[in-house]
Amino acid sequence: MEDIKHTYTIQWVGPLSYEEYRAYIKRDDTIMSDYFNFYYFEAQKNKRCHWRRYMGIHKKKDGIQKRLNAQHEHLKRFMDCKEVWIWIGSLANPNLQKDKNIDLIETLFIRAYRNMLTENTRKKRMKISSSVCVINMWFNQNDEMQTYRVERPCFDDVILYYHEKNLFKHGNLSRIRYDDE
Fold it and tell me: 58, 69, 128: which is closest to 91 by C-alpha?
């Protein structure tokens, strides 16, 4: 049996249009934008074009809007698209907000979703040094947790990487039943 060395929970907010993303970050009741270390966007020029997707990270503690803006190296190419959807994510435990953890999680996502992330060119073949579990939680722009019908989820609810076997498993918890009390 293999030990899972790292477990992280990411709280994703989205999908947001670019304007909704900018407004969400500026709201008084939004957590500090410094906590958002992850972002994902997908864009489609028009209905005849394929979706283009990118995942990135922001490690500095100066707010995600310093990285994810209209001048972003990838996003700027899609600002004129009919459809652009953005998700921003924060680690649920701020004590885990360390550069090495953020890099590890980004590498895990890029490796697990390498075919889907069309705009990511680096890290698709990077090795991951230990077993990792990421749990994704979904929130709308009103900070309400979405459990069943998540609108356009970008990733599965759970992603597991088994280092010894170099094996990824991912899936959704939507089939799991829970009782409201």
Answer: 58
Token pair, residue 127, equals: 């090795």
DSSP states along 141-180: TT--EE-SS-SS-SS-SEEEEETTTTEEEEE--TT-----
Per-residue pLDDT reduced to its tens digit, 75-112: 888 888 778 899 999 999 999 999 999 999 999 999 99
Residue 149 phi, psi dihedral angles, 5° rounding: -90, 70
Beta bridge partners of 146: 138
Strands (E), the chain: 6-16, 36-44, 52-57, 83-91, 132-139, 145-146, 158-162, 167-171
Residues 6+ apart with CB under 8 A from 55: 38, 39, 40, 106, 109, 110, 113, 117, 120
At residue 58, what is the residue type? H
The CA distance from 89 to 10, in Å, is 6
The C-alpha atoms of residue 11 and residue 97 are separated, in whole angstroms, by 13
